[in-house]
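Tutorial, part two.
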Amino acid sequence: MSLINSQRLFQNPLFVIGMITITINVLVSLGGANIRPDSSPFANNQYLELAVLKPMTRVSFLKVPRAINAENESWLNKYFVGSAENFELIPFDSITIDGDNLVIKKYREERFERFAISTLKVIEEDQKLGRWNVKDFIEEKTMVLGTDKYGRDLFSRLMAGTYISLSVGLISVAISLILGILLGLWAGYYRGWHDRIILWLINVVWSVPTLLLVISITLVLGKGFWQIFVAVGLTMWVEVARVVRGQVLSMREKEFVEAGRVLGMSNMRIMIRHILPNISGPIIVISAANFATAILLEAGLSFLGIGSPPPQATWGKMISEHKAFLITGDAHLALLPGIAIMLLVLSFTFIGNALRDANDERILLKND
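Running the prediction step on this input gives:
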């Protein structure tokens, strides 16, 4: 893309807004569990007594140590998914000291529980000196966006869902590009019976409704994290193949392609080294559009209950779990993940439109 078009891209306010939104989502995804208020696996710490708290509610927790066996967890899984905490957190309303025991009044309950101080985690130096501080056992958390109906931190769940949406979009688009570019290049360059067979396959896949095709592939592959990537990617390659085929059909008659044949270059080298770089503009544009489509498809599958299985945090599943709250005072439980989906999809749409306009301008400049 020319320097002029690059400058015009960043002068487009919608392109800039889209880039900023996507960058924030990428940073949240790369931060993994380390930057989430709830760093447990999938941000799935459930406290039923904390169900549907209002935003900015502050809750006190008693930290009770527990044995954690994390030997089989990979560092990658701990970083992105989360790891079990060394403490069990018990929400409470009030706490009193009774000799060598802490007595807490459970949150929103009338019953009391007693914990021996010796069973709680205490700083060793204080133990030796016979001193301890009640603050050592207490942790306070602010539920920035409140909690869902299971008492999970809604803000942490939204952050965890970012990782899923971007991962599905990235891997699905990669799968669609690999299949679409290979088949489109082959059909457009060789033409003849190659083109007829591939075009027939494209039309067959194109004729099946996208969501129905994704559901069918998901049922065949099974429900799971990686199966969603493959299922969505296998439905989007036809658009890439059609665009690549059309571009190659016109490009193969250019003088530089004929010169390559005369110089004895192989067909594969001509396609990969000379034709493909010259059709990269439309491919980039359709990739941005497919990224948005993949996010919507994943959200739709999760809403229907055939996406990533629980307790995985996905925006579509969050909407499905809380759709009944839309007519209550806690409609934000369903609206916030819906807004997250809308903003991310709109961002890729803005970028795709800006890239399309820039690519059209590049073509016009070449013709001039």
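The CA atoms of residues 265 and 286 lie 29 Å apart. In part three we will examine how such features are distributed along the chain.
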